[in-house]
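Each letter names a residue; the fold follows as tokens. Both lines appear below:
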Amino acid sequence: MPNMFDMIRQAQALKEKMSQFQEELEKQTFTGEALGGAVTVVVNGKHAVQKITLKPEALKDGGKLEAALQEALNAAGTQVNARLKEQVSKMTGGLGLPGLF
């Protein structure tokens, strides 16, 4: 049976690593595109929008623009989530910890 104090120490170390990773992730940017690059959205690791770029061809149809913005935002958010999931998997040795993902 594993030593309870070792498990607590490991959990604390994991928590510290995760905090450091979250700080690093917040500084990173992730880009999502739609309409062949006519709409570009950049978000940080907290999913906060940093920049939106619209080329003239994206402005021709408002309905398409709304859908394109949504698509670009979702693509950028998916990248953030994938990076987070990848890092958590590395930190936990691939264990599927309940509640994380």
